[in-house]
Amino acid sequence: MTNTSGNESANILIVDDVPANLVILSEMIKELGYVPRPVTSVKQAQAAIEKKMPNLILLDVSMPDITGFEYCAMLKADVKTRDIPIIFISALDSLDDKVKGFKLGGVDYIAKPFEKAEVTVRLATHLKIYRMQQELESYNRRLHKMVNDQMLLVAEEQKNILHALANLVEAKEDPTGSHLRMVGTNCRLLAISLQFSPKFDKEITSSFVDEIELASQLHDIGFIAIKDTVQYKQEKLTPEEWDEIKTHPVIGAKHLEDIYQQSTKNDFMRMAIDIARYHHEKWDGSGYPEGLSGEDIPLPARIVKIIDCFDALNRDRCYRPAYSMEESLSIMKEGIGTEFDPEIMDIFMKIQKQLKSEHSE
Q: Are residues 208 and 270 in contact, defined by beta-carbon separation less than 8 angstroms?
């Protein structure tokens, strides 16, 4: 039985004035583990929607009184039903018909007579997309409510909530939360050390030091949208899985940007957004997501990249054991001038014995 939310199977509304088509599609849908809800008119469809919101609608184009195209336009104009995916079903499969359906908001088109394999793939695909959209929207609503409620209090409360969210991302791989704590502590120590350099002393103020300690701990918040089977895979990732992993900086920055726009704006959030988006950029421009290079990469992201890499090398991962301190430093030296800012790395190497790590715990 296929679920879309909790333990409840997806219910699919079928709107077609031909009873034989309803029987055929209903049987296919039952075999797939979904719940068919066949109706023969728009009036019945409206009543069915009022009773229970469908997860997907199969909508015939050629119907008396109100056509499928007209009904689709009505559904998309209603805030309560506009997000329900609609797949048109029709013997009319010309390019013009398909284009018209897509322009009205349909997500797909199934031509009659129905092929079970085609119906199976299309239903499964669009139900999965719909479920993921609903989960993301639900997550965003919960996130915004939780964060906005706390931001009305004091700035410290805001930081505490966001820290808790960052811990949620780390909880499965690192139940102790030590990775985030060490990243925050070490970013603070490195930032303080950079204050003594003429290169960085004007940009790294006392408030910068305070902000990066917590903002750095939100760097991987975008992983909340990455599948566990990909994020914690022990074998080598496929190119497609690697592409999915590489979306997390943009996803994380987008979530933080949404919070930033809808709440009290402050430098801490602005820094957290830059870190989330750019902490995988490389000094030589070969990183992602934007391929920035050199000082075009925001300074907080360049600091976090070094500290995050240092901590990751020094702890066990799902796909390899931890490196020794000597091995970790050797690997990082190889990245000077390619992955890492050379001037920040120069100071990092001078203070590395003072930094916290799994080896020093």
A: no
Distance CA 176, CA 173 (A): 9
What is the C-alpha to C-alpha distance for residues 63 and 69, in angstroms, rounded to an integer?
10
The average pLDDT across 144-170 equals 65
- Which pair of tokens denotes residue 328? 């970790």
**Once rounded to an integer, what is the mean pLDDT over residues 38-50?**
93
Sheet holding 35-39, edge to edge: 35-39, 11-15, 56-60, 86-90, 108-111
In angstroms, how far is CA 308 from the centroid of its own chain?
Answer: 20
Q: With CA atoms as reference, report the closest residue to 35 among 21, 56, 51.
A: 56
Q: Which CATH class for the 3-129 domain?
A: alpha beta
3-state helix, strand, coil in the chain (%, to 5): 60, 10, 30
The predicted structure's pLDDT at residue 252: 92
Superfamily of domain 153-360 in the CATH hierarchy? Hypothetical protein af1432 (1.10.3210.10)
Report domain extents, the chain.
3-129, 153-360
**pLDDT tens string 57-91:** 999 988 888 888 999 999 999 999 998 999 998 87
Question: Tokens 């009543």 sit at which residue?
Answer: 47
- What is the tens place of the pLDDT at every residue in 206-244? 999 999 998 999 999 898 888 888 888 888 889 999 999
Instruction: Output the pLDDT for position 258.
Output: 86
First to last CA, the chain: 47
